[in-house]
Design brief:
Elements (H helix, E strand, L loop, with lengths): L1 H24 L2 H5 L12 H24 L5 H22 L3 H22 L5
Helix pairs in contact: 1-3, 1-5, 3-4, 4-5
Length: 125
């Protein structure tokens, strides 16, 4: 089961690292050019950067503490933080009528909760 948790953790980390990096590197106008990023039009540019930074830090927090065996309590903390971000994303997309995107975010939310539960409980470091 530990291998499954590591695989899910790695996939989540890669996805959040890419997504967060994009939000940090691009301007709000560049982000809005992507039709899947319509939610950003109602958000201040600074909040988009905070979300991006949170995703990048969460991705690093999912992998580095466990891989380096230092401060491993940060792994479930990062997973919980990313789950909160995804819960807010689900609400945002449902309010905008974007059900498919909300479903994708709900899957990421479930995977983040899975990692948090496993790393707090049976698969703790």
């Amino acid at each position: 089961m530990n291998l499954v948790v590591w695989i899910v953790t790695g996939l989540l980390a890669a996805l959040f690292l890419m997504s967060g990096s994009m939000k940090l590197a691009k301007s709000k106008e560049q982000i809005l050019a992507d039709p899947r990023m319509g939610w950003a039009e109602t958000m201040p540019a600074g909040l988009i950067k905070v979300i991006g930074a949170s995703e990048v830090l969460g991705a690093l927090g999912l992998v580095l503490p466990g891989a380096l065996e230092v401060a491993t309590v940060l792994v479930p903390a990062a997973a919980i933080g990313l789950a909160v971000i995804m819960a807010l994303a689900v609400v945002t997309h449902l309010r905008r009528g974007e059900r498919q995107t909300a479903l994708f975010n709900a899957v990421l939310l479930a995977l983040a909760v899975f990692v948090a539960v496993e790393r707090i409980g049976p698969q703790a470091f």
